[in-house]
């Protein structure tokens, strides 16, 4: 896979201490911050039309979920941002390669984010 390839990453916040409105506010707060991360070409809320089984929706978008498109060469910047910003909160990520393969990973600590990044790199190389 070349460094100009793009990866789609769906980020799902899993903080049980937040109610639905607080969770959605957290996600909406992250949007402009993620847009500023190097290599992120697009980021938006996940529309209800792309709902995985068991998802909750709020105002036409999936609750607590974002979808970002990032170049493979800059995936480290996105993982670094998420680790710094959300390092103590549990999140789930789905990494979808340009060839359609998918990897589901979870992280809730700095060590887990490092491990998730390592797994994502291995996945994208293979």
Question: In words, what does this structure look like?
Answer:
- The protein is built from three helices and six strands.
- Helix 2 packs antiparallel against helix 3.
- The protein has a single domain, classed as Alpha-Beta Plaits, CATH 3.30.70.
- Strands 1, 2, 3, 4, 5 and 6 form a six-stranded antiparallel beta sheet that branches.
Descriptive key words:
single chain; alpha+beta; Alpha-Beta Plaits; six-stranded antiparallel β-sheet
Summarize the structure.
The protein is an alpha+beta fold and 126 residues long. The chain is built from three helices and six strands, in the order βαβββαββα.
User: What string gives the helices and strands in order?
Assistant: EHEEEHEEH
CATH topology assignment: Alpha-Beta Plaits
Helix content: 25-40%
Query: What is the CA–CA distance across the termini?
Result: 8 Å
Q: How many strands?
A: 6
- Rounded to an integer in angstroms, the radius of gyration calculated over CA atoms is 14 Å
Mean pLDDT: 87
Largest sheet: 6 strands, antiparallel
Class, according to the CATH hierarchy? Alpha Beta
Structural class: alpha+beta
**How many separate domains?**
1
Overall geometry comes to globular
Instruction: Tell me what the CATH architecture is.
Output: 2-Layer Sandwich
The proportion of strand residues reads 25-35%
Number of helices: 3
Q: Report the uncertain regions.
A: none
